[in-house]
Write a structure and sequence with these properties.
Distance between the termini: 34 Å
Number of domains: 2
Helix content: over 70%
Mean pLDDT: 78
Strand content: under 5%
Shape: globular
Radius of gyration: 21 Å
Oligomer: single chain
Number of strands: 0
Length: 233
């Protein structure tokens, strides 16, 4: 198979498990392939947004016209059905595509990205590894910090590093160690990335539960959660 056909099959949701493994390996190792995929993803996202805008404009036009109420309901229903069919055809149940659309690498908001002058400065070394994209090293260091100190930030960035290395089952298990009754900066982000990890693993019910929680409270991820809920339902 020509390698770029993997991108087409990805967006169609037709990659087999073996092909998905090859696809993910290409993303990691082939910069040209990764750049092409990123471009195609942005194009498809723009097309989807444009289709939604056009649908909204059609509905507004019909509503403002002097069509009788009877024909207005028929026409509006027809347009909505076409829109829903188009949207569902493009992305319905394509968990991988939705994950890639909503997932973003979370920035280092805890420690400066400078390797510690002292080799024992494990915290700065851990974040240096994370910011440098050395996620395997980051996993080791954040694990050590969490084991010794139990800090939430270490658990969080360990989970993120696992997601970056596509270890989604372990990432989810790590995220589930967090005490979600806490009311601090990380809670909404723990919940958001747990929802995304469940989405990647096709655990739709669990993802919906977490997204519903985020959508009902004022938090930094509320708007994104509402949008993703809309795409999933």
């Amino acid at each position: 198979m020509e390698i770029y056909s993997y991108i087409e099959k990805y967006f169609e949701g037709n990659l087999s498990p073996e092909e998905m493994h090859i696809f993910e390996k290409l993303l990691e190792e082939d910069k040209a392939f990764a750049a092409t995929f990123a471009y195609e993803k942005q194009v498809k996202k723009a097309i989807t947004l444009n289709e939604r805008t056009e649908l909204k404009q059609k509905l507004q036009f019909l509503e403002n016209s002097k069509i009788s109420h009877k024909w207005w309901y028929i026409a509006a229903s027809f347009v909505i059905l076409i829109g829903l069919f188009t949207w569902n055809t493009v992305s319905s149940t394509n968990y991988d595509s939705l994950y890639d659309t909503y997932y973003q690498t979370y920035p280092n908001t805890v420690s400066p990205t400078v390797r510690g002058e002292n080799s024992d400065d494990i915290k700065s070394n851990a974040f240096y590894a994370y910011d440098s994209g050395d996620y395997d090293e980051a996993i080791v260091l954040f694990s050590e910090i969490y084991t010794k100190e139990g800090d939430d930030y270490a658990l969080f960035y360990k989970a993120l590093s696992l997601m970056e290395t596509h270890n989604y089952d372990e990432a989810l298990a790590t995220l589930q160690l967090y005490d979600y009754t806490k009311k601090n900066t990380f809670t909404s982000f723990f919940r958001w990335y747990a929802a995304l990890t469940n989405l990647k693993l096709k655990n739709k019910a669990e993802a919906l539960f977490l997204l519903e929680k985020l959508s009902r409270t004022d938090n930094p991820q509320q708007e994104a959660a509402i949008k993703l809920l809309s795409d999933l339902n």
